[in-house]
Amino acid sequence: MSVGLVIVSHSAQLAAGVRELAAQMAPDVRVQPAGGMGNDAIGTDFERVSTALSDADTGSGAVLLYDLGSAQMVAELAVESLGDPGSAVVAEAPLVEGAVAAAVAAQGGADVRAVARAAESAAEAGSAGSAGAVAAAPEPTGQVEEDLQLTNEVGLHARPAALLARSLAGLQAEVEVVLGDKPPVQATSVLGLMGLGAQRGDTVRLRADGPDAREALDRIRALAQRNFDE
């Protein structure tokens, strides 16, 4: 099973919304909202967070993300109260961006520490330290490049970006995506891909290094040919 996520927020609606977004990116990852207090009043509740943490951890651990300072304290208390506090990590990350990055990393099979690092590096979307940086980059073995025209309705927006990033899980390849004169972004970074603003009809350049470079580009091309399953 994958690492689970807990969304700790002062607002039940906010926690549920972040969960919905993260679940779209990573449908196999258990994401539990823990927002608000009794009667959905604004605040954070230790019992609610502890229950969500228990539900999120299916054996591989859990990462907790929070919105404001007191939510952090409640999240940390919930972790400290576990029989094995090492099985969960409170990530210091932007809530929405961190949840997206963490969900994709968990979907790709990263362990609890790597999922937390992915969340914490979310503010650096598009850099090598962003969501996809959960494994060491392979040694370059010759770059493979090709251009790809986007024909799907929404281009590289949230769901297609997540599908692209997830398609590279397990490959020994470092892949960059370039749009026009914008700086290249890592193909394993959902936030970086979304930041390109690539739309239907745009042509992006794919660059890959590593033993599985050709396989990586083949997977991306196959996704595009299916219009990212829209």
Automatic annotation (TrEMBL):
Pfam families: EIIA-man, PTS-HPr. The keyword Transferase applies. One of its GO terms (biological process) is phosphoenolpyruvate-dependent sugar phosphotransferase system. Keywords: Kinase, Transferase. It catalyses: dihydroxyacetone + phosphoenolpyruvate = dihydroxyacetone phosphate + pyruvate. Residues 143-230 form the HPr domain. SUPFAM superfamilies: HPr-like (SSF55594), PTS system fructose IIA component-like (SSF53062). Its EC number is 2.7.1.121. GO terms for molecular function: phosphoenolpyruvate-glycerone phosphotransferase activity. One of its GO terms (cellular component) is membrane. It comes from the Bacteria. InterPro entries: DhaM (IPR039643), DhaM_N (IPR012844), HPr-like (IPR000032), HPr-like_sf (IPR035895), PTS_EIIA_man-typ (IPR004701), PTS_EIIA_man-typ_sf (IPR036662), PTS_HPr_His_P_site (IPR001020). Residues 2-130 form the PTS EIIA type-4 domain. CDD domains: PTS-HPr_like. NCBIfam families: dha_pts, PTS_HPr_family. General (non sugar-specific) component of the phosphoenolpyruvate-dependent sugar phosphotransferase system (sugar PTS). This major carbohydrate active-transport system catalyzes the phosphorylation of incoming sugar substrates concomitantly with their translocation across the cell membrane. The phosphoryl group from phosphoenolpyruvate (PEP) is transferred to the phosphoryl carrier protein HPr by enzyme I. Phospho-HPr then transfers it to the PTS EIIA domain. Component of the dihydroxyacetone kinase complex, which is responsible for the phosphoenolpyruvate (PEP)-dependent phosphorylation of dihydroxyacetone. DhaM serves as the phosphoryl donor. Is phosphorylated by phosphoenolpyruvate in an EI- and HPr-dependent reaction, and a phosphorelay system on histidine residues finally leads to phosphoryl transfer to DhaL and dihydroxyacetone. PANTHER family: PEP-DEPENDENT DIHYDROXYACETONE KINASE, PHOSPHORYL DONOR SUBUNIT DHAM. Homodimer. The dihydroxyacetone kinase complex is composed of a homodimer of DhaM, a homodimer of DhaK and the subunit DhaL. This is Phosphocarrier protein HPr. It comes from Saccharopolyspora montiporae. The lineage of its organism: Bacteria, Bacillati, Actinomycetota, Actinomycetes, Pseudonocardiales. The gene is dhaM.
